[in-house]
Amino acid sequence: MKNINTIKVNFKGGIIPPAELYNILVAAGKFGLLYARFGLRQQLLLNVEIEELDNLTEELTALGVSFELGNDEYPNIVSSYPAEEVFIFDTWLNESIYKSIFASFTYTPRLKINISDSNQSFTPMLTGNINWVASPDETGYWHLFIRFPKTNIVYEWKDIVHTDDLAAMSLSIEETILGDKAKFYENEQANGDELYGRVKTTGFNIKPAAEPIELPPFNLPYYEGLNRYDDKYWLGIYRRDELYPINFLKELCMLCINTDTWKLCSTPWKTIIVKGIKEENRKDWNDLLDKYQINLRHAANELNFQVEDNSLKALALKQHLVKYLNDDDTRSFGVCIGIKTRRKSEVFCSILVRRRPVIRIGKWGFFHVYDILCAKDFNPNERTDTIYSRDNPKFVLAEQLRRAILSYYHVNTPETPQTEYADL
Q1: Which of 14, 181, 230, 345 is the most buried (most CB within 10 A)?
Q2: Can you list the alpha helix ranges (DSSP code H) found in 233-388?
Q3: Are residues 313 and 362 in the same domain?
Q4: 203 and 97: one domain?
Q5: CA atoms lying within 13 Å on the CB side of residue 67
Q6: Backbone dihedral angles phi then psi of residue 87, each to the nearest 5 degrees
Q7: Is the C-alpha dihedral spanning 26, 32, 37, 38 positive or negative?
Q8: Tens-place pLDDT, residues 262-273
Q9: Does residue 318 sit within a domain?
Q10: Do the domain assignments include residue 152?
Q11: pLDDT at 377 over 90
Q12: 81 lies in a domain?
């Protein structure tokens, strides 16, 4: 078996500068890499054989690229920027505000931070530890949700915070949590009010929240294909195997540069979106897709899966379940399905399929079974802690998942009133 190591490159909020990505891909290609991946937190993932690891890391260092090798001590900042313009309308949060926020993070966060518009459900709002949600009523202000690290506890902050202070406030919260891990880290008794009282907010532009924010229901837009908006187009690319050919991505970056199309971003669905494609360049983009045989318009019940990063077992299980749902023609609109095969991984989902061993010896597991868990009200911004079905062997799992999806519709579909008809 080959010794593979994963290099992770963070792009804040999923905003990818095409020239920077191009240089990274050129370096990767020099040392034998054929494919790249994108992760759940909108980061670039490169799987490198041990023989070329030192060469590639030296090359990336020479390019000035910040990266992590084999760990996730500095998780990427997740944002709803990819949905801006194409899925989000009538909001005060725009591209320049997103970029000013990312620029204000002059430190590298050690806790997970999410920055989300409140008028969308394309990107997860509460999968971070520090979750900022733009106020729908107070322009320039943000609601805050703390999800204490390694716990199921979510605390809604009592104040709303101005855009200019998001980064500094995040740092103050992070320092407080990491400064007292016994209280606030991996502690199911973590107290939000206590954290609120200990975080230093002197000099910050904050004010009390008038009322708790109401988060929108989950409704995943169709995020693939070449689509028109206003007088431009956006292109969404999904890969069933999560593998993006490096040569394809290099040409994509060059096409962005040559056509003055700078809005390239990665999404939490392990896809990429290019926004701002001009009408005169539409044929160029179609030609690029044709050249590399990049297929578009996959089935919707395949696109609403969330699979943990870099897991061939989870990906194979997804493909098994998707085939069953397709063969049965199961409707899954409105449901987000997550797959978890590792104990410490987290995925954003309404329904979670969890693989676990019956017997564990050290780090080795034997005789795996599957549990199906549901989030409260099937809202993927809630924790999946309600067990729908447990100890399933694989041969019944797909049918059990189908039944769980039907349960979602029973919960979320209002009863149709009975109508009496007079005799005709």
Answers
A1: 14
A2: 246-258, 282-291, 300-303, 312-328
A3: yes
A4: yes
A5: 25
A6: -120, -15
A7: negative
A8: 999 999 999 999
A9: yes
A10: yes
A11: no
A12: no
